[in-house]
């Protein structure tokens, strides 16, 4: 329907309807942002508890691992567990940076990926050194492929981090 001045009457709304709708949207957005922050904070708290639990378990399990598996394998297990704690802490750092900036960043996830790949490289190397002469050629070949893939991942992550640092608009 067209009004006498040529405007379409279905396109215009009274200003009070628009203002009321915008006020409701602002309140709802504020509430959702607060709920989002609360959920992220709770997830961060659970991750922190998990990190402390894993750290405690790693230290407490070390003497038993030392007694049953020997020093080399006990150290490998300890380092592996500690790297897992570092991964959990990096996830917490990601949650904190989200809460502080109200936005995500690629950089913390790249750090987590680098730590994970490094953790796998160390674990494979340690397992191979413990296996020693008993390592079959198939297992050796599989381990070499796994090492190569993880080394390539670390290299790709390092390049990605370098490129992110060179582009100021993509920094945290």
Notes on the protein architecture:
This protein is mainly alpha-helical and 172 residues long. It folds into 2 domains: 15-101; 105-172. It has helices at residues 15-69, 71-101, 107-131, 137-166. Helix 2 (71-101) runs antiparallel to helix 3 and helix 3 (107-131) runs antiparallel to helix 4. The two termini are 51 Å apart. The mean pLDDT is 82.
Write the layout of secondary structure elements.
Layout: H1 15-69, H2 71-101, H3 107-131, H4 137-166
Helix pairs in contact: 1-2, 2-3, 3-4
Portion of residues in helices? over 70%
**What is the number of E strands?**
0
Give the terminus-to-terminus CA distance: 51 Å
Low-confidence stretches: none
Can you describe this structure in just a few lines?
The protein has 172 residues and is an all-alpha fold.
Keywords:
single chain, mainly alpha, 172 residues, 2 domains
